[in-house]
Design goal:
Blueprint: E1 20-23, H1 29-37, E2 41-42, E3 51-53, E4 58-61, H2 70-77, E5 82-85, H3 89-102, H4 110-121, E6 125-132, E7 135-145, E8 148-156, H5 161-176, E9 180-184, H6 188-191, E10 196-198, H7 200-210
Parallel strand pairs: 8-9
Antiparallel strand pairs: 1-3, 2-3, 4-9, 4-10, 5-6, 6-7, 7-8
């Protein structure tokens, strides 16, 4: 177990088998940016100390590898949804928290919301919004450093909304030169859309080249 002293992180390769790297520190913008620069992110419950993780393997999506199924292509042609970025950051993160609470619990505490809102105000955190008319029906938020986007949480209130959000953002990444989307942990949803697991050393190497 590693503890943070003087706001310095240990070598990310020292994370344990579960991916836990360190305990302690704070959620200041400086601390969060230091963490993302070495491939770590905070994940802990409200009644726990701050825990920082760097899992192995790591789920990532290379934007050019986004998979769009035939049925999804047909759905997108209908132009049911419209998309924005950074227009409703607070609503996106609040909705992510609300949905996780309804599912039984969430790491998106008021402290986390305050911390990432600060990052948003500083230009490091971003949100993607999916709209059906004037209703916000899906989206996600995360942190961008250099050519790397670190996804944090997403939500979907209508069928296909989260898929559409990821497809829209992948196209945005290709246009803007963002090389990789960090998805952190594996889910069947993300795997079905082209995300894949890579080793921690490979992830850290990509990070070093693109941060």
């Amino acid at each position: 177990m590693h503890f943070i002293f003087d706001n310095e992180f240990p070598d990310p390769n020292l994370a344990d088998a579960d991916g836990l790297l360190a305990i302690g520190g704070d959620l200041s913008p400086e601390m969060l940016i230091k963490a993302y620069q070495i491939g770590a992110f905070p994940w802990f419950n409200e009644d726990e100390p701050i825990m920082w993780w760097c899992p192995n393997p790591r789920l990532v999506l290379f934007p050019k590898e986004i998979y769009v199924s035939k049925s999804m292509k047909q759905f997108l042609k209908k132009e049911v949804f419209s998309y924005t970025m950074d227009q409703c950051f607070s609503e996106v993160i609040d909705t992510c928290r609300k949905i996780r609470l309804e599912e039984g619990g969430t790491w998106i505490s008021p402290e986390i919301i305050e911390a990432y809102t600060q990052l948003f105000e500083l230009g490091f955190a971003h949100s993607v919004e999916v709209w059906n008319g004037e209703k916000l029906v899906g989206g996600f938020y995360g942190v961008q450093l250099g050519k790397v986007f670190f996804g944090e949480s997403m939500f979907s209130l209508e069928s296909n909304a989260s898929k559409a959000a990821l497809i829209f953002f992948s196209l945005h990444c290709m246009q803007e030169g963002i090389e990789i989307i960090d998805c952190q942990q594996s889910t069947s949803h993300l795997l079905s859309m082209g995300a894949r697991e890579i080793s921690r050393p490979d992830f850290l190497e990509i990070l070093a080249k693109n941060i």
